[in-house]
Structures
1.
Amino acid sequence: MHKLLGLIAFVFTLHAAEIPQPVVLRAAHLFDGKSNTLVSPGLVVVVDGKITGIGPAAKIPSDAKTIDLGDATLLPGFIDAHTHVSMPYMEDWKQQTLNSLQKNIPELTLMSLAEVRNTVMAGFTTVRDVGSSDFIDVGLRNAIAGNLIPGPRMLVSIHAIGSTGGHCDNTGFRFNLFGRETGPEDGVINSPDEARRAVRLNVKYGADVIKTCATGGVLSLADDVDTPQLTQEELNALVDEAHALRRKTAAHAHGATGAKRAIRAGIDSIEHGSFLDDEALDMMRAKGTVLVPTLMAGWQLGKMLENGVYMPPPIAAKARLAIASMSNTFQKALAKGVTIGFGTDAGVEPHGLNAKEFELMVKLGMKPVDALKCATSINAELLGISQLTGTLESGKAADIIAVPGDPLKDITVTQRVKFVMKDGWIVKN
Ligand SMILES: [Zn+2]
């Protein structure tokens, strides 16, 4: 209990955001989220939480406070399209499993407060959170939107929707341990009608986005990593229902067969995509399906395997398979011109390291400026929030960050964010 009170005090002490007032941000450079070059010098005017001007010609209110960030680059707040902020990172696999079974939901929620704070402090002012439990994601989203706690703007998915025994079901426990089999109420479906019911339930209880598991996954016990787990008809129904209700869709998919079913169904993004073949990538290119490669998940699992960190042997074997394939798939997607989004699978690795993904993308051959676009304008488009954020333009929300120096010369400066403003509130300076 003392630990919990300490955590609450910690979070609230650090939520000393400054009240929005007209502000002029100056820095050596500016990246607007869509151009191929930086503008120098950089200047942004913020009034009432919105951007009202960019560049030297912008009209500056007489009562504006100037913040000069010096040799730094101003950028749109970053967007991570694949997080699990209600899943605090824990290296100890057994303890993490016990936590999810033993801890009360309020305690699990409070444990997530530090994670949403770490995320926004790293310059990620928006996240698409793709899979949670017990509505913790909805609670976090609402508390952040109500300014009760510091954190990124959240688009949440509640339950990821998958099949019985699939990656998004609870597997690895004995039959009937929990007194009933999982169903659409838990995001577990076995027919097109159940797919529609699960989508409707998620939307009813507050989902902004619909996440599905089209294939097996790495960190689940009862499935192969690449098998398809939903039929074409189930995915068609799921995507159709989600789009009818104006929700975007994201499919966890490692294997090519399941991914192609999701692409054919009209899914908006393929997450991970470790074993996508040429046909799947060509279909994505043709349909405009976005690939969110989550290279960081592979990076983290690779490090853990190298260090001999315990994971159940079937999971370790699946991790090795995915890691061996994902870099090559990323490079093929890049060469084919598939639209690539930015996502980290944070929770698989510690929250707040999100910007490491830029470094991994650049190491595999992406241009730094293109990597920055993935986490700004491209992700805003993918999430359906490009009217609100993702670029530095007049009329957009004042989600603005600053990194030291020039990120086009050294992409790793994105891991040392020195200033964060969200909706005009300064959360880090
Ligand atoms: Zn994930």
2.
Amino acid sequence: MHEFKDVDGVLFDLDGTLISGNHALPWARDLIDASRGHFAIVTNDAEHTASEIAILMGGFGFIVAEERIVTAGMAAIRLAAEEMPGAKLFIAASASLQAYARTLGLNLCQERPDVVLIGRDRKFSYDTIRSAANFVLAGAKLVICNPDLTHPGREGSIVPETGALAASILACTGPVPHQIVGKPEPGIFLAGMKLLGTSPDRTLMVGDNPETDGKGAISVGMNFLKVG
Ligand SMILES: [Mg+2]
């Protein structure tokens, strides 16, 4: 692969496209080189910060500025902070995303939140479901970092994802309004293009999942290249 033709910038998915678990995929270097440095990463990751992902990528030999990494987890928190500045937030997410929420002025709480935000919380529990479901029924806005139910794990296993955790809350509440942030929703594609300063017709989305990377990219007018 020499370089991508007729594009001003490339958005890469992360898992299954550039990396898989704890290793880089064999085609990752060619993909990144083909973008001639005009790329950003848009990932449904709802556990790590961009800084953590930049460090991970560095360990694989890829220098990626954290400012070039859009994660669904951080995008969801930014959305909550922009729509409801200083809101009381009940968050089911990693310690690093909780810290990020605090830096944006959100007030983390365990009672009467304005917003319930669900990420890939490895400590998700019965109590989390009980609290979140009751807060949502009492009027808190429900924000879900991504709709994915699972992602591929080692040796053919599956890893439960944010959408599965959120589904347990929605099973208790019944149908309630909620906002989903990750792919295939348009938000993080638009954020990625804003970083690159490119228009949809001149931006290529490269990903392994036609349902999320592909459908989402096409819905905002970008071209899609499937890898993996
Ligand atoms: Mg993927």
